[in-house]
Amino acid sequence: MTRFCCKFRRVAHDPDPRLLRAFSAVAEELHFTRAAARLYVAQQALSRDIRRLERELGVELFVRTTRQVFLTPDGERLLPHARAVLAAYEELGAAFTGAGGAPRPLLVDLNSPNGMFSGRVLERARELAPPDCELMARYESGLTWAAAEILAGRLDASFGRVAGLDRSVRARLDWQPVRYEPMAVLLPEGHPLVDRPAIEPADLAGETIYGGAGNPRTLEWTDLARQLFDEHGIRLAPPAPLAVGVDEFRRLMAKNRTPVLVVVTFKALPGTVLRPLMRPVPLSPVALVWRKGLRHPGLDALRRAAAELAAAENWLVRPEDCWLPEEDAAVMGGSG
To answer: How far is it, in rounded angstroms, from Cα 292 to Cα 288?
Structure first.
């Protein structure tokens, strides 16, 4: 890839295409809010990418006033080079499309077929995608596992809690915040709290609740559960055999009679009762995650669908009385 030299400070590596894409969008819109909407990212994340590119190149690319944004001479000089690099990436992607010029299917892990909102995002993305673009669902569960599959090239996108991933893994991914999902507890019938319409975490003090311990695919969920439980005196249930499928999950729950930490969109199983948690409302932060640098029309449709649904249904609005770890709030504040 052509390096930026000439009048720009020599950089140690080629600029990230994402940063060039951010720069190009702002340069063409001359408006950070419109550029962020065009890229389906938070304005804060877009501003951060522009600052990073400016640091890497050692120049100021934009002049920002309260009324307008315009290119500096260095920004004007960079723009044709950025466009050329991005066009080269588009050509590279086009060289690896499927037969007849159609893109290969985009493989999307929805975590679970059990009524999760990610299925709605996929269905809307299929409506938005070009006719020759196929989006294929997978149901494997757990962003820890899915992230490894994404980086290995066996999966394209998934949904989950980014802050729970190892930082070295996170550095190779991009993500788009999609939803703060309220958490709930799945109680076995006959539990003393089943008659309450909602349960406070403090009511569960001293209880032992299953939060995925022992499942290597869902380490990010177990970490979130442990943080919540530690704050409210709840015991994390010891590792249990990995239950694959609804029937196995139901069988083990009936055998152990241990409450399970879930989200409010989880469908209660026969013999169980789902109760939302409140005062505070614990939140499970969910982002759409993909491999850094991936270009695919199906991903574009998926990102647009997620942004549309999140805006229409206030998925990214946090309740005033909520619980969310600081790191999760920071990670969800922008894209990767």
So the answer is: 12
